[in-house]
Amino acid sequence: MKAITFLFLIPVFLLTVNHLNAQEEEFGLASYYSDDYHGRPTAYGDYYDKDKLTAAHKKYPYGTKIKVTRLDNNKSVTVTVTDKGPYIKGRVVDLSRRAAESIGLVADGVAQVKVELVSRSNRQTDVASNTNVRREPTRPTAYDFTEPEQEAPKAREVTAVKRETPTTTTTTTKPATETAKSPTTTAAKPAATKEATPGEIKFKLVQQDYNQYGLYKIVLQKPEQRGFGVQIASLSSYENVLKQVADLQAKWFDNILISAEKTGQAPVYKVILGPFVDEKTAENYQSSLSKKYKIKGFVVNLEEIEY
Fold it and tell me: Where is the signal peptide (predicted)?
């Protein structure tokens, strides 16, 4: 009788384990591969194909199927893990271009998503057995608006130094050749002008180094007042609002909303993370905030806020 009971409990246990695995969820930023990586080997030895529904994930092994749902428009796609990554802090998954297009990620570059386990891989493949495949220390990263602008000024600075040095030496030792070297001097001036163009001014993300006094770039956008959010703070001063935003940026949040509301004589500024398309998604996000970042909050309906 005991043997029969034991055999009966085995399938029940396995079904329970599979059900728990299927409920695994992860929240964070999603990005997608640069087209420059098309045709190159992944960490597992496959070749990346931008037209297939694939992804890179740090935790799930090769062949695992995961569902990626964008939180602001509720679009989702199921992809197969074929690579390790992403390697940029704050991001949880890199999608192929086709997968990114299916959830509207190409235009935005990055977005907050929920990653759910669909099915685990049966293949016993590990990165350690394929370490000879990847010879490049770093692969072309997923789509990032800031990377080209960060590298370009360095290249121009080196060029400008190389051009100015021969001109100075020639002027000191061989005055007769100044006319011949004038094109070099002329070429150096445009390089200096490019360094001063406003489009190439570098910006640093404000994090824990926020100070009450200083120069900051502020971009205000007014989203549609719909959907749900997770309110995490209610503040009464501008300075505290900016400090709260800096603290959230330090944790790589980019879905920060500020609701300025009238309450008597002075306004109140509510810090809300969102928006999310439905209340259930917002509740799951709230639970993730509490577990991962120890941030307490509650779900609010953005359409019910009165101004």
Answer: 1-22
Reading the block at residue 281, the tokens are 């998604």
Interhelix angle 178-195/147-173, rounded to 10 degrees, is: 150
Task: Verify cis geometry, omega within 30 degrees of 0, for the bond prior to 61.
Answer: no
CA-CA distances (angstroms) from residue 7 to 19, 81, 298?
19, 34, 45
What DSSP assignment string belongs to 126-163?
A: -GGGGTTT--SSSPPPBP-TTHHHHHHHHHHHHHHHHH
Strands 54-56 and 76-83: parallel
Q: Are strands 54-56 and 91-95 parallel, antiparallel or unpaired?
A: antiparallel
Per residue in 188-205, pLDDT tens? 333 333 344 445 677 787
pLDDT, tens digit, for every residue of 67-95?
Answer: 999 999 999 999 999 999 998 888 999 99
Of 16-20, 84-88, 297-301, give the lowest mean pLDDT range.
16-20
Residues in Cβ contact with 89 at an 8 Å cutoff, skipping those fewer than 6 apart = 252
Give dist(CA 119, CA 65) in Å, integer: 5
Rg (CA), the chain: 26
Half-sphere exposure of residue 235: CA atoms within 13 angstroms, side-chain side: 16
- Residue 47: CA count within 13 A, CB half-sphere: 3
